[in-house]
């Protein structure tokens, strides 16, 4: 094997998962991790319910870069940005002018928050939370605030809304969908969630689109396309993520919705890999924790000399909304089928079956979440 290092760009869950799995298989191969921020390790999913669990930004950080470097026996370079990738030379050029050669390059650069095309003098003051530094700014901005507006009723928007409501804030959630978690839940399940969150004090503004945000004294005025106006002390945007593909695209690496890879997490260049929120693996972009774990194990084996395709079994996702417990395994949008729904005041059990009766997804809310372990084995694998 080449004595050149494996270079990992990114120090989030994906980057560290690869480093850990690779180190389990090979204690000698040099590994360099390049981090655009402090390089410390923390659980990003924890950010959306840290208020309710009493976590401060400082306590969310599990280990700093120095400790991670010592534990994994890798080189971590915080506050280091890559300018370009030289595929032909198997090297990366850093913004400081330094060049690093690699035997294998791993892109684990994550995703960026989607920014809505809004007008108004307060647009730049709208915050998104995508990493620990963002969360620190978010917590600072919350001080002395009472009324919060959240743009987006997806998974992250609902989790933050429930977290803020538990902490005593007045919360507005705005979305163009007819119900919360519009991309994950069928309508009846979405309405059930909406009722539970509304009972917790959250006000929904659905089938609505914010067009303009302006500052009015110490507050913000949100003007909807439909003419409605609300005011809030703080505005959080949680309308989704877009895979970071600019670095790959500039280097001539094929990009579609994400950095395109095969089952081996390889791009068209067999020594350049991608995983996590930035990657599109066999046409699938899966911005969740479990796909990262499966991808990291497969990639580490491949880099260690045993080519291993990634397999995605059923991977249900727990939504952190204490007002309404939810576990969901969303069906692939290309599958033709329909939801079979059993609902009562205690919960909703929704099963998505294809025309042959095979189970491709489910949504379990309230008391129905107890059925997860019984139903999950019936699901077809996401990537066999």
From TrEMBL:
GO terms for cellular component: cytoplasm. It comes from the Bacteria. Keywords: Cytoplasm, FAD, Flavoprotein, NAD, Oxidoreductase. Residues 6-284 form the FAD/NAD(P)-binding domain. Gene3D superfamilies: 3.30.390.120, FAD/NAD(P)-binding domain. SUPFAM superfamilies: FAD/NAD(P)-binding domain. It is found in: Cytoplasm. Its main location: cytoplasm. GO terms for molecular function: oxidoreductase activity. Pfam families: Pyr_redox_2 (PF07992), Rbx_binding (PF18113). Residues 309-379 form the Rubredoxin binding domain. InterPro entries: FAD-bd_OxRdtase, FAD/NAD-bd_sf, FAD/NAD-binding_dom, Rbx-bd. Its cofactor is FAD. Belongs to the FAD-dependent oxidoreductase family. This is Rubredoxin-NAD+ reductase. It comes from Nitrosomonas communis.
């Amino acid at each position: 094997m080449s004595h050149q290092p494996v270079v990992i760009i990114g120090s989030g869950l994906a980057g560290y998962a690869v480093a850990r799995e690779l180190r389990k298989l090979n204690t000698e191969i040099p590994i360099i991790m390049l981090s655009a921020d402090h390089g410390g390790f923390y659980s990003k999913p924890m950010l959306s319910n840290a208020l309710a669990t009493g976590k401060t930004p400082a306590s969310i950080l599990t280990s700093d870069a120095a400790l991670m470097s010592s534990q994994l026996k890798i080189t971590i370079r915080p506050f280091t940005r890559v300018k370009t990738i030289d595929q032909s030379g198997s090297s990366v050029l850093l913004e400081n002018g330094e060049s690093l050669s690699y035997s294998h390059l791993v892109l684990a650069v994550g995703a960026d928050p989607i920014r809505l095309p809004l007008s108004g003098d307060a647009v730049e003051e709208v915050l998104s939370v995508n990493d620990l530094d963002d969360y620190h700014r978010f917590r600072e901005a919350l001080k002395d605030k009472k009324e919060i507006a959240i743009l987006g009723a997806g998974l992250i928007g609902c989790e933050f809304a429930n977290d803020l409501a538990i902490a005593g804030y007045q919360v507005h959630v705005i979305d163009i969908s007819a119900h919360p978690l519009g991309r994950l839940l069928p309508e009846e399940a979405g309405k059930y969630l909406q009722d539970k969150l509304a009972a917790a004090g959250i006000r929904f503004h659905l089938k609505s689109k914010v067009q303009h945000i302006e500052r009015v004294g110490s507050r913000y005025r949100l003007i909807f396309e439909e003419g409605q106006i609300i005011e809030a002390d703080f505005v959080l945007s949680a309308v989704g993520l877009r895979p970071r593909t600019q670095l790959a695209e500039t280097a001539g690496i094929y990009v579609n919705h994400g950095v395109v890879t095969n089952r081996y997490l390889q791009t068209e260049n067999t020594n350049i890999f991608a995983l996590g929120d930035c990657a599109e693996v066999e046409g699938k972009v899966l911005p969740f924790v479990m796909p990262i774990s499966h991808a990291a194990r497969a990639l580490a084996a491949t880099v260690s000399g045993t080519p291993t395709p990634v397999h995605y079994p059923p991977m249900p996702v727990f939504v952190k909304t204490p007002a309404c417990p939810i576990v969901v395994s969303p069906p692939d949008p290309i599958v033709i089928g329909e939801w079979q729904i059993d609902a009562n005041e205690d919960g909703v059990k929704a099963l998505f079956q294809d025309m042959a009766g095979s189970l491709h997804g489910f949504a379990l809310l309230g008391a129905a979440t107890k059925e997860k372990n019984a139903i999950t084995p019936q699901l077809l694998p996401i990537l066999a």
